[in-house]
Amino acid sequence: MTEFLAVTDLHFCEREITGNERRNNLSVIKLKEALKSCGPDCDFILNLGDTADSQPGYGDQETLAREVYGVLSSAGKPVHCLIGNHDTSLPKDKLTGILGMPGRYYKFETEDFIFIALDGNMNSPDEPLPGEEIEWGKTYLDPAQLKWLAKALDEADKDVIILSHELFMLHSYGEDNPHVLRNRDAAVELFEKSGKVKAVICGHYHYGDIVRHGGIYYIALTAMVNYESANYSVIRACKGRIEIEGHGLQQTMTLELE
């Protein structure tokens, strides 16, 4: 069994409560709580992106991202991070260095699964390295990444879990929504054609969601930044089943795999 602690959308900065649901300045405190409670028993820590926010007067984004990664690493377990749309205030090559990422998209494996981490943080598939923070509701996967994805799936000799900040569907496959990648169909076709992808785990949509399409679960995890509660997941995955133990506002669920 593979067991990991998953967090997403910390949006960490020094902004205090302003009346909406976001509690940016509490995210690192809540992250420490999650790591203390569940980190010791996990195989690795997963951060699905939107690690820190660039907001004038509320902290330097590079410094904030380094602080979050330092906390993530304090558990003494491998840390796997993804880029989120807010993270593009920093150049991607700088951010991947700060967050210990081997590249803007990559793969890693455990005894049971191959995990494929993607980068949908671009407003044009022809410009995968934006020069400024992107518009969150108009995101794409670039052709080189899709080609790499096809090869990674073809070579996979285990079941696969896809990781992405942006979503491939929300509420249903047919519903159009700005949280969904604009050219997701090409990737979804690869997922289904491979017969190896069992789940797609995302962030981006702060309230959480789950859709099953083509035998694959598409899961959006609840944002850590929402309200005062520490919202995170302990995910246990084995052949035939994924269990999500929800904390705070995150829903607990058991997913039977085909």
How much of the sequence lies in strands comes to 15-25%
Poorly predicted parts? none
Main sheet properties: 6 strands, mixed
The helical percent reads: 10-25%
User: How many DSSP H or I helices?
Assistant: 5
Quickly count the domains.
Answer: 1
Order of helices and strands: EHEHEHEEHEHEEEEEE
Question: What is the terminal-to-terminal distance?
Answer: 17 Å
Rg result: 17 Å
- The CATH superfamily bears the name Metallo-dependent phosphatases
Mean of residue pLDDT? 96
* Rough outline: globular
**CATH hierarchy class name:** Alpha Beta
Task: Give me the secondary-structure topology.
Blueprint: E1 2-7, H1 27-38, E2 44-47, H2 61-73, E3 79-81, H3 92-98, E4 106-109, E5 113-117, H4 143-155, E6 159-164, H5 184-194, E7 197-202, E8 209-213, E9 216-220, E10 232-238, E11 241-247, E12 253-256
Parallel strand pairs: 1-2, 2-3, 5-6, 6-7, 7-9
Antiparallel strand pairs: 1-10, 4-5, 8-9, 10-11, 11-12
Q: Could you explain the architecture of this structure?
A:
This protein is α/β, with parallel strands linked by helices. It has five helices and twelve strands. A six-stranded mixed beta sheet has the order 3-2-1-10-11-12, covered by helices on one side. It has a six-stranded mixed beta sheet with strand order 4-5-6-7-9-8, covered by helices on one side. Helix 1 (27-38) runs parallel beside helix 2 (61-73). It starts with a strand and ends with a strand. The model has no long low-confidence stretch (mean pLDDT 96).
